[in-house]
Specification:
Number of domains: 2
Radius of gyration: 27 Å
CATH topology of the largest domain: Rhomboid-like fold
CATH class of the largest domain: Mainly Alpha
């Protein structure tokens, strides 16, 4: 095994992959139309995108074309991740000495041909302190290849188990419970009259301001017609089980109720003397929460975020504006509430403690702001 010779370029590639995947939490991403290069993503890393280029660059013209292609691919990633700017680290492993690398606002370039020359790692060291020492191994040849491959596979296996844990379907008890409660309330509406139930439980700004705060949530379980409850419960039946499975029952319930509350508060600010009932504000909150989940797990969801989730949200918002009698402000409030409370409750294996704290602070600020608008500012107009 000691006699097996591995090219320096391949050895450096393996060491870099090992460092970024096992030590820095980067994930390989599939970028169509590339050859002799590996793309890695970690949106929380010093460089959200790291590109390892093993193809040979023999002159200035070829480098310029390579950088043009890199810019195009980074632009595609920006669209997919909804970012205006993504700092990228391009690591070149096979470039002629007479070809000079130049960084720009978006891409830093580094030439790592000979790993014995520590000055090659200066740019990387600033972002990843200690990388030089972590690339040093006692093994070489096939032993090195086997050692690194085993450690990368072990890390990949751990990550795969995490993904399986997140996407594994769990019983949606809360979703089914909410559906049953809505159906039960509608059953009483049929017995005693929808107007009667709405009078006691529906959202009416003056009554809420007079002290009947409970209406901010009870109104979410009241529906005005058979079609109204059918549409809302169908939407909840479709999206609820998946989202509850992703987040867990406790977090799902928090997302649903907070979205409902935010939807009711924003609706109340624009209702005037009108009434509002229905679960659509809370359901839009689930759409917002799915948007947050889809962004963080976009590598595994493919183009579902752009091709399915966002179009569904936009279509429903458009219908809300186009059709009279729909409480669009409840939809908007729920949607915003669903996104920010999802940051607060966090995603398993994805959301950091600092992100959760920011989400909690933002959720409280948004809640206080809408309470002020609904109870003080609007009431004084």
């Amino acid at each position: 095994m000691e006699n097996v010779v591995i090219r320096d370029k391949d050895a450096i590639t393996m060491k870099l992959l090992h460092f970024f995947i096992t030590d820095q939490g980067y994930t390989p991403i599939i970028v169509h139309g590339v050859k002799d290069e590996i793309w890695l993503e970690n949106m929380q890393g010093p460089y959200p995108i790291v590109r390892i280029m093993s193809g040979h660059i023999h002159n200035r013209e070829q480098l310029e074309f390579d950088m043009y292609k890199t810019h195009s691919l980074v632009s595609r990633i920006k669209k997919k991740t909804f970012r205006f700017k993504i700092k990228t680290l391009a690591i070149f492993l096979d470039i002629e000495d007479n070809v000079k690398l130049e960084a720009n606002d978006e891409i830093d370039c580094v030439n790592v041909i000979n790993e014995d020359k520590k000055e090659n790692y200066e740019v990387i060291e600033k972002a990843f302190p200690g990388i030089s020492s972590k690339l040093e191994y006692n093994a070489d040849g096939l032993d090195l290849f086997v050692k690194i491959t085993e450690e990368i596979n072990a890390t990949t296996e751990r990550e795969t188990k995490k993904i399986e844990d997140v996407f594994k379907f769990k019983k949606p008890y809360i979703t089914y419970g909410i559906i049953c409660l809505n159906v039960l309330v509608f059953f009483f509406s049929m017995l005693y009259g929808i107007d009667t139930v709405a009078t006691y439980l529906g959202l009416q700004p003056d009554l809420v301001r007079s002290g009947q705060i409970y209406r901010l949530l009870t109104a979410v379980f009241v529906h005005a017609s058979v079609l109204h409850i059918l549409l809302n419960m169908y939407a909840l039946y479709i999206i609820g089980p998946q989202l509850e499975s992703f987040y867990g029952s406790g977090k799902f319930l928090i997302i649903y109720l907070f979205s409902a509350l935010m939807g009711s508060l924003l609706s109340m600010s624009f209702l005037g003397n009108g009434w509002s009932v229905g679960a659509s504000g809370a359901i839009f909150g689930l759409f917002g929460s799915l948007l947050y989940f889809g962004y963080h797990y976009r590598v595994y969801l493919g183009d579902a975020l752009k091709s399915q989730i966002i179009p569904i949200i936009l279509l429903n918002l458009f219908l809300g504006f186009a059709i009279s009698g729909i409480d669009q402000f409840a939809h908007l409030g729920g949607l915003i509430g669903g996104v920010i409370i999802s940051v607060a409750v966090g995603l398993k294996y994805k959301t950091s403690k600092s992100e959760q704290i920011n989400g909690i602070v933002l959720s409280l600020m948004a809640l206080v702001f809408l309470i002020y608008i609904a109870f003080i500012y609007t009431a004084s107009m």
